[in-house]
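Dear colleague,

Thank you for sharing your sequence with our group. We've completed the structure prediction you requested, and as agreed, I am returning the results in plain text so they can be pasted directly into your records. Please verify that the sequence below matches your submission; if there's any discrepancy, let me know and we will rerun it promptly.
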Amino acid sequence: MSIQQNLIDIKEGLPEHVTLVAVSKTKPVSDLQEAYNAGQRIFGENKIQEMTEKWQLLPKDIQWHMIGHVQSNKVKYMAPFVSLVHGVDSLKLLTEINRQAKRYRRVIDCLLQIHIAEEETKFGINEQELNDLISSEEFKQMENIKIKGLMGMATFTDDETQISKEFTHLKTIFDRLKGSEFLKQTLNLKPETLSMGMSGDYKIAINCGSNMVRIGSSIFGSR
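Please find the predicted structure tokens below.
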């Protein structure tokens, strides 16, 4: 199966309101170009250095999503071009993204990563930490970032009931955020995106309310 055919098959099965992020980490530029030629414009990378190198080589109408864990000291490399940062899990990181975005006279869209998995290895904050962050004075004064929603990763398991439970939990937090009083208090909070679901579980995620999925191996083949 070609990358083009994989993309066609996946997109045909996605509801219209769901955005596809093609996870291209570790894949050569030629693979990304093939996906681009097939109409894909949103790519997700998990290492800033690799994403920056690909950004330099590929067409400039691509939207680059940073989907991996971000180290504050690397933010400056992606600040000129990144479209969406998925894994923001601290006020410290958000402060640095805001600072670097200001340098480039940009507003960088971000998602806050919520910890929903039972595994300790997954990054993210809980709902209380989310509320503390968006109600803080520091957050309200950030003019160069916009929180566009939430992101989460389910436990790596074959237990679909557990995966569904974790995704439903994240959707509940997302709905509470959308209905919260914080929206009236700050200009940089506009929750529209719920990024959850990868190659193995994106269909469950969509059933649970996801409107952005991150798919890699089903498009580009196994790593």
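Summary note from our side: The mean pLDDT is 95.

Kind regards,
the structure core
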